[in-house]
Amino acid sequence: MSSHLSIRKMPIDESPEDEEEVPTAQTTITSYCSSDVINEVMNPLIEQVKDVAHLEEANHEEDTPNDKIKLESIFEGLGSFGRFQQIQFILICIPIAFVSIHVMSWTFVVSSARKICNETNETLVDGCEELAYSASDRWDMNGDNAWIRATVQSVYLVGQMIGSFTCGVMADKIGRKKVLFWCLVLQVTCALLLIIAPTWWIYALLKAGTGFTQPGIYGVAVVLGIELVGKQYRSFIAVIANVFGVVGGIILSTMAYYIVDYRLLHAAIAIPSLIFITYYWVIHESARWLVSQEKYDDANVVLCATASMNKKTMPKDWADKMEKKVDVTATKKKDSFGAVDLVRTPQMRKRTLANFVMWPVTTMMYYGMTMRSDVGGGSLFVTFVSSQLMELPAVIIVALLIDRLGRRIMYSGSIFTAGVFLLANWLTHDLIPNQYAVVMLMIAKGAVSVSYTVMYTYTSELFPTVIRNTAVGCCSTMARVGAVTASFIAFFLVDRYGRIVMIIPFTILAMCASIVSWFMLPETVNKPLPDSISEIEGNKI
């Protein structure tokens, strides 16, 4: 073994003992800037140097060829939730408010003119009896024909079921942006045609069209948002998305209070939606999805736009240096992942089955308690708005606790709480004043809202990028089974057999969902998003 000695020239007054480490960029700059004024000028530059240093550290590959830059490092280096992410996220959340409006609009559209006028008070809506016109009045959906009301809403939810699977799979195959945009176009088209629908069955088919678009808007928007930001902000995405849904419900009840002709109400909902046609030019594709499809040039465009707006610096040759995650569980092409992969391997199968219990139960309770918010008595408008407002404290609870307690305990605990308060309402209904029974139902609705909000974040984190939208889509498809059941319970069975047909099944199923989620699923808080099925099966996530 040969040795090589290098002699460094030193000033006379310098000794080896006094040698210090080479200062960092920040200490070098600040050592020459003692003035407060200069510090104020230089601090932004210092932060920029630190950001660049962070990216360069992630990209430093020369000494260890096997080390690769991780995709998560690129996102963190470009800003986990900078200006680019904020603008994109707000834009994809706005349509969620309209999704909420379309989902709940049938509650008011089907109410008879007499009921609407009694509850709005003719002093607020001048000439209400002459102006009011509901779908129920037009197509005689009262009395023995009440089944038509449940059928129309069920057809809408069947459209959701088809859309959940189709949009989820297509979003993984052709991209999040394309599915989101075309669903927005279809929703606007069907919403405009609802105004002039000549028969109830044509109306129902058009409602199914709007239902088809809901998963492609809400579900894809949440996944797109989660893939847009750093891991510390992922829980924030579903929470804020749910806030927009609450706002949509409040806007709907306000419009329905003053617009007593169902055709004008549909026009008021549909016309503002035309602005979403511009989304083709303003919404970016998910860079994470583009990388998973090895579309590095397209991903580079999105990442450069992110860096530019966030005032960050892109790492050089990031695609060549990036760690490639090869999925050893599949011997097929990257674009051939499908729904069967959700149950092909043990860990994926376990997660899928648990979610197939959670989603229909939570959705059935959420829709049932919203569509029949007056099941405990009171005005339809008052109880509907109260039900929507209960979601705001639910959202705050999720925002404050989801990262501290974790996804699993938040979902399991909240759905269990909903079941407890529903059971308490049934057991004490004849022993306490009606207003207390209503409060119990509102608390149960708030708890369901917590579980519904957590569920989207939790499911999105449980499944890998290559099949994430397919997983959410399939779960949402299963959820429509619960939603269809809820519509028949809310619009048909409760009127015939009383509130017990809602409360008892909801209570039992809530307990089951709580137990399944607690014992079958792992915690995902503060863990990186899985990109491949092999990460799941290797228990890395």
UniProtKB/TrEMBL annotation:
Alphabetical keyword list: Membrane, Transmembrane, Transmembrane helix
InterPro entries in UniProt: MFS_dom (IPR020846), MFS_sugar_transport-like (IPR005828), MFS_trans_sf (IPR036259), Sugar_transporter_CS (IPR005829)
GO cellular component terms, semicolon-separated: membrane
A GO term for molecular function: transmembrane transporter activity
A Pfam family the protein falls into: Sugar_tr
SUPFAM superfamilies associated with the record: MFS general substrate transporter
Membrane topology: Multi-pass membrane protein
Cellular localisation: Membrane
Positions of the Major facilitator superfamily (MFS) profile domain: 93-525
Sequence intervals crossing the membrane: 89-109, 179-206, 212-229, 236-258, 264-283, 352-369, 381-402, 409-429, 435-458, 470-494, 500-521
Region (Disordered): 1-26
Top-rank taxon: Eukaryota
Protein name: Major facilitator superfamily (MFS) profile domain-containing protein
Species, as recorded: Caenorhabditis remanei (Caenorhabditis vulgaris)
